[in-house]
């Protein structure tokens, strides 16, 4: 397998973990790290570093290069994907070799699956979703676009964590339950009933503790090669 050049957007803690998943999987090699914390472009040990603007230049120069947004916060990740506005055909997905993904489980563009994660038959992992270390997506469970399953969290069979939902570290969702769009399920929570869209729920059993101010409209990927 030839390792494709990869541009990783985001140089924070999650970005470093995503780069390690890339290294371990061998599917890609690091071409560049872009982040607006860099005010100008530079090169170190064969890797380019620079502001987000550098992404377009590199993708234009390198027809084989792919990109991924490696920012853990779901809303920030979506905002970056929309700002990039490139369509998803050159968007990489990354799966650590120590993850166990059943054959036929789709892993959407921009999604990343960390070591020790499991996705069983019929599971679906949406675009730009994160399945963090040791998390479980049981059979027929769905992780929507921009959703994030934190370390050691579990979605039981037939559950849904809808677009942008954040399932906190060690939280559980029992069979058939839906976690609504952009809702947050607190660390260690047990969701035994549906959680509506746009709320923060916590505890065992999980109860709503507050509502989010506003929800973004449903995600619609940019058309291929799109730009703004
Ligand atoms: C649930 C959560 C989002 C709430 O954050 P918040 O809105 O800032 O809420 P606060 O910290 O102000 O807490 C509000 C109340 O909820 C309680 N609470 C907060 N998190 C809780 C949790 N995980 N379980 C049970 N109760 C919780 C607090 O004790 C507080 O109760 P009180 O009003 O009786 O004092 C946050 O605590 C949490 O669990 N985040 C998950 C983080 C995570 O797993 N990250 C993984 C990164 S990979």
From TrEMBL:
SUPFAM superfamilies hit by this protein: Trimeric LpxA-like enzymes
Matching Gene3D superfamilies: 3.40.50.20, Hexapeptide repeat proteins
Domain of life: Bacteria
InterPro entries linked to this entry: AcTrfase_PglD-like, PglD_N, Trans_hexapeptide_repeat, Trimer_LpxA-like_sf
Domain PglD N-terminal: 6-84
Pfam family, one: PglD_N
PANTHER family with a match to the protein in the record: ACETYLTRANSFERASE, UDP-N-ACETYLBACILLOSAMINE N-ACETYLTRANSFERASE
Protein name, as recorded: Acetyltransferase EpsM
Source organism of the structure: Paenibacillus cisolokensis
Gene, per the UniProt record: epsM
